Amino acid sequence: MGVQGFSTFIKKKTPKVGVIVDLLHESKKKDILIGIDGSSFIFYVANQISKMNSLILFRNYIIEFFKVLKENNIQCCVFVDGFNAYDKVNEHEKRYIQRTELYRKCADQALHDVECKQISHYQFPHPLFSKEFTSILKEINVPVFVSKFEADKDLAQWALDNQSDNLLGIFSNDSDFFFFDTKCYYFPLDQLSFNQNSITMVGYTIDKISNSLSIKKNKLPFLAALIGNDQTKHIRGNKRFGLKNTQERAIYIVNLVKNQNCSDLVLIKEVYFVTPQDIEKIKNSIKNYSLESIIDKDFLIEENSKSKFRKSIISNLNIFNNQRKESEKNLEDVLFSISGHTSRIYNFSKLVYPPQYTTHRHCFEPSNVSFENSILHFTTTLSSHLFGLLVELPDRAITKITEFVTDSSIQLLKLEYVPDYLAYSHHQCFSNQVSFNQRLFDYCKLLNSLSYYYSLSKNNTCLINPITFDFYNFYIITTWNFILSNSLKFSIKIEEWMVDTFIIQSLFLKNEIKIEFPLQNDMFQPLYIGEFFLVTLRWSLDLSDAMALPKYVISNGGNGSIQPGHFFETIYIHPLWRMANLNRKNSSKLLSLQNSKLSITDKLKCLFDQVSNLITPLIINQFTFIKSQLCFQ
């Protein structure tokens, strides 16, 4: 998020502080190197495509963008966020409430407008976009690094470490970059214009900002802390000066600092009612903008890439301090890579903040659904076991989880509970002290899929082969079994044809069958059931990583890779849903569908008649197996 109100203020300031840069024009003069804030870029792309929650459209845009960069010899390095930073807990609570309000509002609108004609139902790309994004970058050989915490400082440090005539700048929408002395441009993504023939941006440098404001460059971090960044704007007693908005506050405090004739402490007290702890928080916030100068001129050649970066690119990334337990470093090897399946690394912040951990969740759900009957409540058993896995055995007596949820009036409620524990922790999983079969048994038990486990293990009489282990079937079967086991309490009656529709669209995606459906309005029911599926899948992926299942499969020669885009796609599910719903209401087809002797092939081709030619024997076989493992209530 960055510094409140400053971005709007500096972009409107006259004379103009930013300069227009044509990236493709610059690339004709010399080789260009850019850094990209991956989390900001995900949001930017999601807001550019016509369906914000479409992974297909998202994927197409990402591939096209990086293709244009490659064709013009523009090298790039992408950084994505890791754990939540503890000093930003208040900011994360604020964002949680804001997002919950938007999700709730959109869900309420969709509930009363089932064709969703008037709404953009997803205000934010769901967390699986992060995994999809890093999967795409790996596929097209773009260097990507996951930071230990938020990526902004690592990206700024990388830019300083790699300063040269070739380094043009940083792409982000985090206004903290106005205050890092990276020796290069900062390009706000909201001022980026992209097509196949042109990439134009507006670039800002700290020197130009300093000159424009008539404030010394070394005072700009102090200015950011006073205006209010993610660490300081929630300080209790923050004086608002009766100003109408954050932009006015930015202007007011810029003038205070520009005309400063007192000590920094006096000026801080002019802006905040502060305690000694607040003073320390402000000091730490200012220090966060400090970057280290690196003298080492050696270069690192990235694997599978011709990109050259100084060795210091890795110096502050992917590395826990030396006192950390070896087990946590093992887990980090999966989390801080693009090999793991986890969609939300911040869920694993329990590793760095024991024994107390605070979390919060939100999803697309109407306000008339009580918490006891909500998706968030249904999936609490999964999150509780995930957090339990992250606790070492000796620490279990003192560990508690604090979770924020909201009631129907968006009031913040605090739930405190002790995690649910298995007989082992992630440590035993990563050191292979727990057998693969045992981990799969416990995982399937949590996802209410024991019958599927017994099918895999032939009633527990044989070892499951990790080389042939199919993660796709594993996730889709266990996720649907979990949903079906909670379906009686769910506010929508989940009928068999609905599940069939979701499975067929997943199999089309898995087998990369492309269908050109006309873009239509979404519908509430598949949206809401789809949210249940996605939320459950996300926790499933995190549990899987904490149990080291991908690590075990890969280390034994199996294929541990998946793509979230192979499970759910909004531009597929809604047309298929309409098709199936219409056909099951057709009197002649209804008689056929009710015929118990009707084969699965004929049933599917009757439900999905417009795409019946795409329902191949392979699709039929995969569908039949998945359905055979589901337990309908």
UniProtKB/TrEMBL annotation:
User: Residue ranges of the XPG-I domain?
Assistant: 141-230
Q: Which protein family is named in the record?
A: Belongs to the constitutive coactivator of PPAR-gamma family.
- Gene Ontology CC annotation, any one: nucleus
Q: Which Gene3D superfamilies match?
A: 5'-nuclease
Tell me one GO molecular function of this protein: nuclease activity
Q: Could you identify this protein by its name? A: XPG-I domain-containing protein
- SUPFAM superfamilies reported in the protein's UniProt record: PIN domain-like
A Pfam family hit: XPG_I
Its transmembrane ranges are none
Give the superkingdom in one word.
Eukaryota
